[in-house]
Amino acid sequence: MAQRNERYRGLFLHTKDTARGDRILTFLCNEGLLSLFMFGGPKNSLRSAALPFVLADIEVYRDSRRDFIKLTGANVLEVFDGIRKSFFHMQSASAASEFLIRTSAFGGEYQQALLMITLLLRELAGLDESETRLVLSAFFWDALYPLGLIPDLLRCERCGRLFSEKNSLPGGLLVGESSFLCRSCAEEYGQIRYSTSVMLPFDDKILTCLHSIPKQSYGQAVLLLKSIPSSPDIIKIIESLAEAAAEGPLQSLRILDQTFYRTQI
Ligand SMILES: [Zn+2]
Asked: I need a surface site. Which of 101, 167, 202, 223 has the fewest CB within 10 A?
């Protein structure tokens, strides 16, 4: 059979309209990360449903001979209305979906990825603008586990020294890398090998916080991060690790950075 109809439940992550008014959609479901095609025209009733961050049951028509999947029906289940109230909310949601697409849903963990981004969107919808970056960090940190990219929080990955040893902290994470280094390794690396690279510092409070994020709901993680004075440093560390995992800068984060700094100064 070269052609068949299929049904999926999942989330639209990204859409792109072509010059002709057709739409290319990225859809995450338990079965995979699908690239769907939707024909243009104002009469297409699917246009209002096939938008980023809409959870839906969809029907598609697969033409396997031409390697082509067309969206033919969508029943909207959840729209996460609260995330559409501000630029910060939408950009945070976009950063999460960009990360998912770039890592192929945590390297093929589709079910876990769908569950995590659904919970993230629900949490984001109820948050204040100033809290969006915190919950996004909790999402990124949790996402590093299925990718196997969580750094060792107990010892230096270069020399093996325990972070609980005297004078081993503050340690450092080199931007673009994914290993936590003890104080002396961080100093040595900073001076010799990558003198122009940025080293992000961390202390025992930051390590304790990172250790406890995965044990909490996103709501609890936001409260935890809000209560810690060094949360801007934690966010920098987590976002640096997320960009290392995505093998390059996340555009949505950079846009958020530019806007954030402009409005804060
Ligand atoms: Zn070391």
From this structure: 167
Residues with Cβ within 5 Å of ion ligand 1? 156, 158-159, 161, 182, 185
Q: Do 97 and 136 contact (CB within 8 A), yes or no? A: no
Four-residue CA torsion sign, 223, 229, 231, 237: negative
90 in Cβ contact with 56 (< 8 Å): no
In which order are the strands placed within the sheet that holds 171-174? Answer: 180-181, 171-174, 199-202
- Ligand 1 centre to CA of 178 (Å) is 14
Q: What's the gap in Å between 5 CA and the centre of ligand 1? A: 56
Cα of 103 from ligand 1 centre, angstroms: 29
| CATH homologous superfamily, domain 3-78 | Nucleic acid-binding proteins (2.40.50.140)
52-79 residue pLDDT tens: 999 999 999 988 777 789 999 999 999 9
Q: Which pTM value belongs to this model?
A: 0.92
